[in-house]
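Re-running Reductase to confirm reproducibility after the cluster update. Everything else is unchanged from the original entry.
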Amino acid sequence: MADFQTPQMKEFPIIPDLQNDATSHLSPFIAKPNHNEDIGFPGELVDNWEEKAIDKMGDLLGKYRSLRVYLDSCVKCGACTDKCHYFQGTYDPKNMPVARQDLLRSVYRRYFTFAGKFFAKLGMPGIVGAREMNREVLDEWYSYFHQCSQCRRCSVFCPYGIDTAEISMAAREIMDSIGHGQKYCNEILGKLQKIGNNLGLPEKALKATLAEFEEEIEDETGVEVRIPIDEQGADVLLITPSADFFAEPHIDGLMGYAKVFHAAGVKWTLSTYASEAANFSMFIGSYSNMKVVAERIRKAAIDLGVKRIIVGECGHAWRVAYSFWNTTAGIGSGADENDVYAQQLQKQLDHSYPIPQHICEFTNDLIEKGELNLDKSRNDHRVVTFHDSCNVARGSRMGTTPGGQFDIPREVIKACCNNYVDMEPETIREKTYCCGGGGGLLTDDLMEIRVKGALPRMEALKSVVDEHKVTNLAAICAICKAQFAKVLPYYGFPMDMITSTHQLVKDAIILPGEGEGNDDDQEENED
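Result of re-run:
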């Protein structure tokens, strides 16, 4: 366990006295020069960085009208102040959404508003909340904009809809542009662009791993279930987070996908070239890097000749797929008519299906059609609750009706389990609390803020554990699963409580031919 105090869980939320600069000491590791340069940023802090940071801010203000609106709109009403999980876990006032916004807003006012420029000439910029761009401000940005998971919960409660996540992304993009980027995100993006996945897992290792999973399924069921990769002419390309190839509970979810495809008789494949759904470019606000990663997926889809693209259990990856793949890579409506490859893919894909489609929607469609044989009693040893992941809940949709991103995963779980209970209404669905590790914070150098930021979700979980004997916390996000596996023990819960939603499907599904031959085996043993 790290050297800090885990917050005490409370039955009801209590906001105590503020603790100024309580987490000012928390900052992620700075990216090494090659981490920055590999993804198109200066290797180290550039000369005249103050001026270049302001130039970059001006560029973003011209490019994204919403950013200027958010910086101009706040009336300091206070509706957001206690809505951030990091504020609730640290009591640091700079973790209030409005205060976090003001870190960027104060510099914006100094250089991009008449009042800021006027009072700066009089030596009184602070009278209008304006600040000069200097090293103290940069250090404050680097610390507190990496204590924001970009979960967007505060925007739900803001009467003007101000999106702190977009402000956080802008601040990180500015810092990257002057060579002051974060090691965790930038290093991972470099691996992804070179190798095809966040883990840096090469083709041979990936194929060997999948072969082991196939053996495990066959040992369990007696049925040969393939997990195909680079399968030319498959109908479906599955794009899933590389965590699904690596560790529990993620791998159980992958085996669940494989069982679903097998039971449905669908020809599908993974890709070694694009073996990653995650796209950390969103966390650092880099549209150009987001496009590079998305185009790998487009190339894989074209090369393999698939008709459909389905996305595995990953929260921010689904938001990127749902909201950005169309404009970055031509996957979905809105493809650039001048982009030859985007138009080629549009002609290739089957438009009678959603483009792209979430694995939960795919599975739920099969369940509704009665095409999966599910035995709910196989999960009777579990009492399950569900964690709505932020980027799914507040950054995307699923299915054909509003709220599908909330209802569809729950319908899948309920089809597989007899014992399901939701957490308190104010902690789920569009008001869900973040796991505490999203937005590029899933790194050990930020473990303190990750643990403290998980407090509201842990309190909601404790309530259903105490009242309903909940044993499993299901999720559809790779980051959430990895975060909870680390954080649950800090709050006295077992780490294996976190469960892939498709792990529940995996355990409930009865495959065609499963169990056949067991009677003969039993007779042989009796002889």
